[in-house]
Amino acid sequence: MKSGHNSFPRNPGTAFTPEWFETAQVNTSAAERRAATLTTRRSVKKDYQAAWLVKALQCIDLTTLAGDDTAGRVHRLCAKARRPLRDDIVERLGLAAAPPTVGAVCVYPSMVPHAVKALEGSGIPVASVATGFPSGLTPLPTRLAEIRWAVEQGAREIDIVIFREQVLTGDWHALYEEVKAMREACGEAHLKAILATGDLKTLRNVYKASMVAMQAGADFIKTSTGKEEVNATLPVSLTMVRALRDYGELAGHAVGFKPAGGLRTAKDAMNWMILMKEEAGRRWLEPDLFRIGASSLLADIERQLEHHVTGRYAALSHHAIA
C-alpha cells in the first residue's frame, strides 16, 4: 500500500480460531461514552490542525460509486486525486516540493480501466469494490470472478463486502472460508473487508465479524458500503479498532482500518484520526494502515486549508470535487 513509511508485511491471516472471539462481550454504553469523550478531550489548532488535515487528505480513498458513473466522471475524479489541493494553497503550506495526493481512487469494477489509465505514473492505486457490492448477495463463484477481473484490469486494492447472513446467523466458519477465498482471488492486490456494520445489529457482532475477517487474511477492515441506513459511527469504529488491536496482539500482524459513509467534514476526519491515534497509535495515521472512504470530504478539507493560509472561507461550491 502507498505510504511514506516502510509498509508492514501483509496480514497472512491465521487458522480459524473461534476462541479469539466466541466469548467477546462489548459494553455498548461504555463504547458510546468512550467515543463521545475522545473528540472532546483533544483539540488540534492552527498549524497542527493544518498538518492533520493534509494527513487526512493523504488517507482519503476518493470515491465515486454511482449508477450513472462514466469514464468522464472517473477521469475528472482522478485529476482531482492527483492534485487535490490548488497550487496556491500547496505553495502557501510549503508543500510545493512534494505536493500531497490522496490515498487511492475507489470505483466500480467496470470503471477500473478508466481510473488506471487516468492515474498512470502517479503512484496512486486504484481500488475497486467487488463481490456483488453493496449487497454481496451474488453467488460466490460470481463474486470471486469479479475480484479476479478487477485485479486483471489493474486494481491494486479490492473492497469486498461480506455476506451479512453469516454474521446474523453466527455461521463464523462459513464467513471465514468465504473471505479467505476472496483474499486468494485478490492475489497481490490488498483486500479491504467491508462489514456493513449498520446491518450487523450489535457491537458484539461487529467485533466478531472484524476478528473473523482478519483471521481470513483481510488487509483492512472497513465499516460500511456507504449505502446502508447507518454508516460509519465512532462507537462502531472504536469496536473495530479494539478488535484490530486485539488481533495484532494475538496474531502479531498489523491490519488497517477504513471508516466509510457519512464522513463529510474536516471535523469528521479529525475525529476519526483522533480515534486512531488514541486507540491504535501514531502509526495508524498513515495511508498503509488508515483510509477514509469519501467523496465530498475533500472539498471541506481544501476549504479549511484555504482558510488556514488566507484567513478567509470560500464558499464550499468554490472547491469542486471533480
Could you please describe the fold and organization of this structure?
By secondary structure, the protein is an alpha/beta fold. It has a single domain, classed as Alpha-Beta Barrel (TIM Barrel). 45% of the residues lie in helices and 10% in strands. The chain has twelve helices and eight strands. It has helices at residues 28-41, 46-58, 71-82, 87-92, 112-118, 140-152, 164-168, 172-186, 203-215, 234-251, 266-279, 297-310, and strands at 60-63, 104-107, 126-129, 157-161, 190-194, 220-222, 256-258, 292-294. An eight-stranded parallel β-sheet has the order 7-6-5-4-3-2-1-8. Helix 1 (28-41) crosses helix 10 (234-251), helix 6 packs parallel to helix 8 (172-186) and helix 8 (172-186) packs across helix 9. The two termini are 24 Å apart. The mean pLDDT is 94.
Offer a few descriptive terms.
single chain, 322 residues, alpha/beta, 8-stranded parallel beta sheet, 12 helices, 8 strands, 45% helix
Count of discrete domains: 1
Query: Strands across the major sheet, in which order?
Result: 7-6-5-4-3-2-1-8
**Shape, per Cα inertia axes:** globular
CATH topology-level fold name = TIM Barrel
| Sheet with the most strands, sense and barrel status | 8 strands, parallel
Distance N terminus to C terminus? 24 Å
What structural category do the secondary elements indicate? alpha/beta
How much beta, percentage-wise?
Answer: 5-15%
User: What radius of gyration results from the CA coordinates?
Assistant: 19 Å
Continuous helix count: 12
CATH architect. name = Alpha-Beta Barrel
- Give the helix level as a range of percent: 40-55%
Number of strands: 8
Low-confidence stretches: none
CATH superfamily: Aldolase class I
CATH C-level class: Alpha Beta
Order of helices and strands: HHEHHEHEHEHHEHEHEHEH
| Mean pLDDT value | 94
